[in-house]
TrEMBL record:
InterPro entries: ADH-like_N, GroES-like_sf, NAD(P)-bd_dom_sf. SUPFAM superfamilies: GroES-like (SSF50129), NAD(P)-binding Rossmann-fold domains (SSF51735). This is Alcohol dehydrogenase-like N-terminal domain-containing protein. Residues 9-87 form the Alcohol dehydrogenase-like N-terminal domain. It comes from Cephalotrichum gorgonifer. PANTHER family: ALCOHOL DEHYDROGENASE 1-RELATED. GO terms for molecular function: alcohol dehydrogenase (NAD+) activity; metal ion binding. It comes from the Eukaryota.
Amino acid sequence: MGPEPGYRSQNHIAGHEGIGYVVKSHDLSLLGRPVAMRFLAAACESCVYCLRGLQSSCPEQLNIPKHVNGTFQHYNTVPISCLMPLPAGLLDEGRDLGKYCAALCSGSAALRAIRASNCRPGDVALIIGVAGGIGHLVGMMAKRVFGLKVIGIDRKWKIDTLQAEQRAQVADVFLPTPGECVERESNGLYGFKSALLSACTQLRGDSQLSRYAETVIVTASEFSAFQNLEEYACDGGSIVCVGVPRGDCKLSIPLATLVERSLRFEGSLMGGRKEAMEVLQYIRSGLINPIVTEVGLADVPKEMQRLGEGGVIGKVAVRLSG
C-alpha cells in the first residue's frame, strides 16, 4: 500500500487524525495550546461551497496528509490554519486521547451522514458496516444522540468479536451481511430480507404496518454492500452512502422504484470542524465511547495491511508519546 494519486510519492508521512500540543510558534500565546489535525485541515470559508457547509468541495482546501505531512511523527510543522483548537484542559483530564481522535474525521463523517438522512426519533436505521471505523460511530450516535432504533450489519466474525458492552452501545439488533446469508442459506437474499423485516417490526413494537428501515446508511467500502439498497428501505426512506469502494463502481436502481416509492439517495463525505467538535463533546461527556485500539508507530505497516483487508474493528490510533 502506498500514497494515492495526488499525494507525495517520496517522503510521504501518512496519518490524517491527531491530537497534541503546540510546542513551538512565532506566536508565543499559542505555546501549550491543545490542538487537533484532521484530513480536512483548512478551507477558505468564503466560497459558495464553504458558505453552504460543504467545505469538502472547497477548491482552496488543504488536506492532511495530502498537502501537509501527516500525523505519524512526533513533531509536525504545519500552518496554524491547519490546526483545530481544542478546549483548554482537554488533554489534562486523564482520558484516553485515542478516543478523541475518532471525532476528528470518522466522527464528523458519521454525524453528517446521520443528519443527511433526515431521521426522526424512533425511526429504524440500518447501518451497513457497523463494526467499522465510521460505522460504529454512526451506530452509537444514532442510538444515544438521535434516539433511533439501530440494526447493525457486518461480517459475522466482526459482530462476534464485539464485547457485550460494545454491542449494546452500537446497535439494538445485529444481522450478518446479505452475502453471508446467501452463502449459508438456501433462500439467500430472501432470508436476509425476512430477518431484516422481522427486526424492524420487533424494534418498532408495532406489527400493524410491517415495513423496512426509514434510514439506510452505508459505511462499508466493499461494493457488495451497495447492492439492493432500495430493498432495505421503506417507502419515503433515505439511503445515505458514506463508504466508497475502490474502482469505477456504479450504483443502479430502477427509476420507477425511486420515484414511485419516494426514496432519497444521498452521498455524504465528512463534516467540518463544527461536527468534529460536537462529536468530541459527546465523547468527553461519556455519551458515546468509541472503539479504539492503540498501537505503536512500528505497528503502522501491519495495521495498514489489516485495514486494507477489512480486518480492523472500530478505529486504530497510534500513540507516539506518553
